[in-house]
Write a structure and sequence with these properties.
Length: 241
């Protein structure tokens, strides 16, 4: 039986290797980790700073690699916003995902009131340290930081200048996850506005990058909820005896 495809959308500053820490837990899926231009395997391409262009880039990657009627999308932080838009685009194209999983923010319209991409360098570094998930060596190596700073700023601009609070609700079910130390975690129910189907959520211990502590749990949430939808679909479409 062919595995369902799972498309992963990275966070700000991430790349196609950003979810490698979860690989051992996702063996039930054909995992495809997407990547925006300007980093990783696409280092030679120009960075994007526009949300719509970033969503279109990811949409094109999904469409090119789709080889199964069953597929899922999971995005963290910036990738969560983009995951919602890409899911909507796929539904409009008649190729809807079976499930959308998001983590690392409370959804469209819940703002932290910060424009990180415009901060002076020291303030920018302070914000990165507060968010967590970046080794301290990254800040101690000036050459390394200068290499990644433009990528981070471009991605923060994509995430912070999105205009999707009025995005139509998708038909696919949606599951949201956040760390209990994240800003606006109390607003996580906001994600429920963006699905016409089942909405569920779970809050796990940790900061913005709680997913690194809970890789197994995140993978379990994805598999369990996808399996539940698959079983329900089979029951509804099972031929009558």
């Amino acid at each position: 039986m062919k595995k369902a495809q799972l498309f992963l959308l990275h966070f700000a500053g991430g790349n196609s290797y950003s979810f490698q820490f979860m690989a051992a837990y996702l063996k039930d899926f054909e995992v495809i980790s997407l990547e925006l231009p300007g980093r990783g395997r696409r280092m030679g391409e120009d960075l994007l700073r526009d949300f719509d262009l970033a969503a279109l880039d990811l949409y094109d990657q999904v469409v090119r690699q789709l080889n199964s009627p069953d597929f899922l999308i999971y995005g963290h932080s910036m990738g969560a916003y983009l995951g919602l838009r890409v899911s909507s685009m796929l539904e409009e194209a008649g190729r809807p995902p079976a499930y959308l999983f998001v983590s690392g923010n409370a959804g469209p319209g819940i703002r932290e009131g910060k424009n990180r991409h415009m901060l002076e360098r020291e303030e920018f570094i302070g914000e990165l340290k507060r968010l967590g998930g970046i080794p301290k060596e990254f800040f101690e190596d000036n050459e390394l930081f200068e290499l990644f700073e433009p990528i981070l700023r471009a991605d923060f601009e994509i995430a912070e200048r999105n205009d999707i609070k009025d995005e139509p609700a998708i038909a696919a079910p949606l599951f949201a996850m956040m760390g209990d130390q994240e800003e606006n975690v109390e607003e996580i129910a906001n994600w429920g506005r963006y699905t016409q189907s089942q909405y569920r959520y779970e809050i796990l211990e940790g900061d913005h990058f709680f997913i690194h502590k809970h890789a197994g749990r995140v993978a379990h949430i994805i598999k369990y909820n996808y399996d539940a939808v698959t079983r329900l679909s089979y029951q509804l479409n099972k031929p009558k005896q």
